[in-house]
Amino acid sequence: MKTADIGKVLGYECLCSEGMEAEIVDGYTSDLLSDVMGNAPDSSVLITIQAHRNSVAVASLAGIRAIVLCNGRKAPEEMIEAAINEDIAIFRTSDNQFTASWKIAGLLKKN
What is the pLDDT of residues 42-98, one digit of tens each? Predict the structure, then answer.
Protein backbone atom coordinates (compact mmCIF):
# COMPACT_ATOMS: atom_id res chain seq x y z
CA MET A 1 0.00 0.00 0.00
CA LYS A 2 1.04 3.61 -0.37
CA THR A 3 1.55 5.88 2.61
CA ALA A 4 -1.30 8.08 1.36
CA ASP A 5 -3.75 5.17 1.82
CA ILE A 6 -3.49 5.59 5.60
CA GLY A 7 -5.27 8.91 5.29
CA LYS A 8 -7.45 8.19 2.26
CA VAL A 9 -8.83 4.80 3.28
CA LEU A 10 -8.72 4.98 7.08
CA GLY A 11 -9.56 8.67 7.38
CA TYR A 12 -6.61 9.43 9.63
CA GLU A 13 -5.67 13.11 9.80
CA CYS A 14 -2.49 13.91 7.88
CA LEU A 15 -0.15 16.17 9.87
CA CYS A 16 2.85 15.88 7.54
CA SER A 17 2.37 14.87 3.92
CA GLU A 18 5.97 14.02 3.08
CA GLY A 19 6.61 10.66 1.41
CA MET A 20 2.98 9.99 0.53
CA GLU A 21 3.90 7.78 -2.43
CA ALA A 22 6.24 5.57 -0.39
CA GLU A 23 5.39 1.88 -0.33
CA ILE A 24 4.37 0.50 3.08
CA VAL A 25 4.85 -3.26 3.46
CA ASP A 26 4.40 -3.78 7.21
CA GLY A 27 3.51 -2.11 10.48
CA TYR A 28 5.04 -1.95 13.93
CA THR A 29 3.37 -0.91 17.19
CA SER A 30 5.55 0.23 20.07
CA ASP A 31 6.19 3.15 22.41
CA LEU A 32 9.71 2.05 23.33
CA LEU A 33 12.01 3.68 20.79
CA SER A 34 14.89 1.26 21.41
CA ASP A 35 12.47 -1.56 20.59
CA VAL A 36 11.47 0.21 17.38
CA MET A 37 15.12 0.63 16.34
CA GLY A 38 15.87 -3.03 16.90
CA ASN A 39 12.73 -4.66 15.57
CA ALA A 40 10.65 -2.50 13.23
CA PRO A 41 10.67 -3.76 9.63
CA ASP A 42 11.99 -1.56 6.84
CA SER A 43 9.29 0.29 4.86
CA SER A 44 6.79 0.02 7.69
CA VAL A 45 4.41 2.36 9.51
CA LEU A 46 5.05 3.03 13.21
CA ILE A 47 1.92 3.04 15.37
CA THR A 48 2.64 4.85 18.63
CA ILE A 49 1.70 7.52 21.16
CA GLN A 50 5.25 8.94 21.21
CA ALA A 51 4.67 12.42 19.75
CA HIS A 52 8.11 14.02 19.63
CA ARG A 53 11.00 14.47 17.22
CA ASN A 54 12.93 11.50 18.62
CA SER A 55 10.22 9.28 17.13
CA VAL A 56 11.06 10.72 13.72
CA ALA A 57 14.80 10.21 14.26
CA VAL A 58 14.25 6.56 15.19
CA ALA A 59 11.83 6.09 12.29
CA SER A 60 14.46 7.42 9.91
CA LEU A 61 17.13 5.08 11.28
CA ALA A 62 14.77 2.10 11.05
CA GLY A 63 13.56 2.82 7.50
CA ILE A 64 10.02 3.58 8.66
CA ARG A 65 8.03 5.56 6.09
CA ALA A 66 5.13 6.85 8.23
CA ILE A 67 4.12 7.42 11.84
CA VAL A 68 0.56 7.11 13.16
CA LEU A 69 -0.04 8.95 16.43
CA CYS A 70 -2.86 7.33 18.39
CA ASN A 71 -5.27 8.53 21.07
CA GLY A 72 -5.48 11.94 19.38
CA ARG A 73 -1.91 12.87 20.29
CA LYS A 74 -0.78 16.18 18.85
CA ALA A 75 2.53 16.43 17.02
CA PRO A 76 4.69 19.34 18.19
CA GLU A 77 6.07 21.62 15.49
CA GLU A 78 9.62 20.28 15.89
CA MET A 79 8.33 16.76 15.19
CA ILE A 80 6.64 17.91 12.00
CA GLU A 81 9.75 19.82 10.91
CA ALA A 82 11.91 16.73 11.51
CA ALA A 83 9.46 14.59 9.51
CA ILE A 84 9.61 17.03 6.60
CA ASN A 85 13.42 16.84 6.64
CA GLU A 86 13.37 13.02 6.78
CA ASP A 87 10.56 12.55 4.22
CA ILE A 88 8.32 10.73 6.74
CA ALA A 89 4.54 11.13 6.81
CA ILE A 90 2.71 11.69 10.10
CA PHE A 91 -0.94 10.86 10.74
CA ARG A 92 -3.14 11.30 13.79
CA THR A 93 -6.14 9.26 14.91
CA SER A 94 -8.39 9.07 17.93
CA ASP A 95 -8.10 5.27 17.68
CA ASN A 96 -6.07 3.51 20.35
CA GLN A 97 -3.00 1.54 19.28
CA PHE A 98 -4.80 -1.80 19.17
CA THR A 99 -7.53 -0.49 16.89
CA ALA A 100 -5.10 1.40 14.65
CA SER A 101 -2.89 -1.69 14.34
CA TRP A 102 -5.89 -3.83 13.45
CA LYS A 103 -7.10 -1.36 10.80
CA ILE A 104 -3.66 -0.96 9.24
CA ALA A 105 -3.11 -4.74 9.22
CA GLY A 106 -6.41 -5.10 7.35
CA LEU A 107 -5.37 -2.46 4.85
CA LEU A 108 -2.00 -4.15 4.30
CA LYS A 109 -3.73 -7.50 3.80
CA LYS A 110 -5.96 -6.04 1.05
CA ASN A 111 -2.96 -4.65 -0.79
Answer: 999 999 999 999 999 999 999 999 999 999 999 999 999 999 999 999 999 999 999
Beta-strand relationship, 89-92 and 13-16: antiparallel
Indicate if the alpha-carbon torsion angle 30, 89, 10, 107 is positive or negative.
negative
Which residues are within 8 A (CB) of 78 and not within 5 positions of it... i.e. 6 or more apart?
52, 53
In 3-state terms, what secondary structure has residue 3?
A: coil
Cα distance between residue 59 and residue 36, in whole Å: 8
Q: How long, in residues, is the chain?
A: 111
Domains belonging to the chain, first-starting first, are 3-109 (3.40.1390.20)
* Residues 73 and 51 sit within 8 Å (Cβ to Cβ): yes
Q: Are strands 13-16 and 26-29 parallel, antiparallel or unpaired?
A: unpaired
